[in-house]
Design brief:
The protein is mostly beta strands. The chain contains 2 helices and 10 strands. It has a single domain, classed as Lipocalin (Beta Barrel). Helix content is 14%, strand content 47%. The chain is globular. The protein starts with a helix and ends in a 9-residue tail after the last strand. This is Lipocalin-like protein.
């Protein structure tokens, strides 16, 4: 009976763990920072964002992140600058490796679903993003 109970608990624990590869289907698209959690316990809430992030990852696990300024009716202002991303699954984590001409760094995706994404950087600062919903105006 004890072995069955241990086996049952093991199955439950294993089935509840999240596969970081499943986050990949959710990361593409437009994101805005909702809040930032700092290592000292401080929290910064964002109500309005002047810029949003557009993330695009392809099937070869390469992509980019661009900063965009939202306009009206799904129009965006952007520059030609983009941060290159290489995605790797390491130690049961989904990691984004960024590279620009000026710096390189890593972020780990803690969770991602249709509406929210949480990432942590190397300073252990957690960024919580929410899916960006463009402002649509009915001009008729």
């Amino acid at each position: 009976m004890k072995r069955i109970l241990i086996l049952f608990l093991l199955v439950i624990v294993c089935s509840c763990s999240t596969n970081p590869e499943s986050y990949l289907e959710h990361v593409n698209g437009y994101w805005e920072i909702d809040q930032v959690l700092f290592t000292d316990g401080a929290k910064k809430q964002y109500k309005d964002n002047e810029t949003i992030d557009y993330i695009s990852i392809n099937d070869s696990l390469k992509g980019f992140r661009k900063k965009l300024k939202p306009g009206f009716n799904s129009k965006y202002i952007t520059s030609k600058d983009a941060e290159g991303i290489t995605v790797k699954i390491e130690n049961d984590s989904l990691n984004f490796y960024y590279k620009t001409p000026y710096a390189s760094w890593k972020e780990t995706v803690l969770s991602a679903n249709e509406n929210q994404m949480k990432v942590v950087n190397d300073r252990e600062t957690v960024y919580i993003y929410k899916r960006y919903k463009p402002l649509e105006l009915d001009l008729e």
